[in-house]
Amino acid sequence: MESMTGTFQQMKTAVKKRRSPGSQLLVAIVAVFLFAYFLIVAYPLFWMAINSLKVTDEIYSSNWALPSKWMFSNYAEAWDKGVSDYFFNSLWITAVTIVLTVLTGAFSAYGLSRFQFRGKYAILALLSAGMMFSPQVSLIPLFKLVQTLHIYNTGWALILPYVAFRTSLTVLLIRSFFLSLPKELEESAFLDGCSSLGIFFRIFLPLSKPIMMTTVILTAYWAWNEFMFAIIFIDSDSEKTITAGLLAFRDALYTDWGVLMAGLIISALPLILLFIFMQKHFIRGLSEGGVKG
To answer: Is the pTM of this model over 0.85?
Structure first.
């Protein structure tokens, strides 16, 4: 009984220490800092969203006031003037990039985490080295390769480089997560007669949902917003992605800022919604994906 009373007193003391004025002040300072950071990040998007519902004259006269007339027609006009084509081009290119990157990364990570073979650590070293190089370094060789493969001015001219440049990070993230899974699960499955491929699909993939969602978000963010390859490898206006297409859209609507900003909001909306719905898996995947290396 005395030991239980002593333990209870220790818990109360610990709680009081955690609620000390110094710790509360620190929490308040961190909260204010994070709120200020949020305002800095959200300021351009919020400003753009307000002005996307105005006519051009009102943007110049009162760019921070609420619209006197809510011009939702700006979004319909932007969509009809070409944003829809750019949007769907980006959508299918990003979707294919995600599928190929995640599948390639998952299969590679499974082999590198669960099998021993000659050259394994050399492959890991090459994957780590691949993250150090900027895509701009390989621009000229890639341009010649795209022309040699006769995929210039097609979506595959973007998909293949996107997958190549995101594979290193994807493999290392998923491999770290796979290493944290207990080997007893794999051994039990082997005893039940499950093959290596069956273990991958029935055990590893279902347990790896957080890290898979993390790689989906990271890959989608990079593929959707990539600009350099999109303006060099795609020349036809009908094949442009939304980042490159909005550049031409701006030149066509250089006086109609309301419609242009509506197009920018449309381009940003998919990633915002993706992160909102997957943020729980994203944070969990990042924290659990760095357990082991």
So the answer is: no
